[in-house]
Amino acid sequence: MSGRTWDVAVRATAELGEGPTWDPAAGRLIWVDILSARVHTYDPATGRHTTLATEQHVGAAKPRAGGGLVVNLRDGIGLYDSAANGFRWLVRDAVPGRRGNDAAVAPDGSLWAGTMRYDEAAGGGTLSRVGSDGSVAEILSDVAVSNGTGWSPDGRLMYYVDSPTRRIDVFDVTGEGVTGRRPLAHIEDGAGYPDGLCVDADGCVWVALWDGGAVRRYTPDGALDRVIPLPFPRPTACAFGGAGLSDLYVSSARVGLGAAAPPLAGSVLVIPDAGRGLAQPAFAG
Question: Which of 9, 95, 161, 185 is the most exposed place for a label (fewest CB within 10 A)?
Answer without folding.
Answer: 95
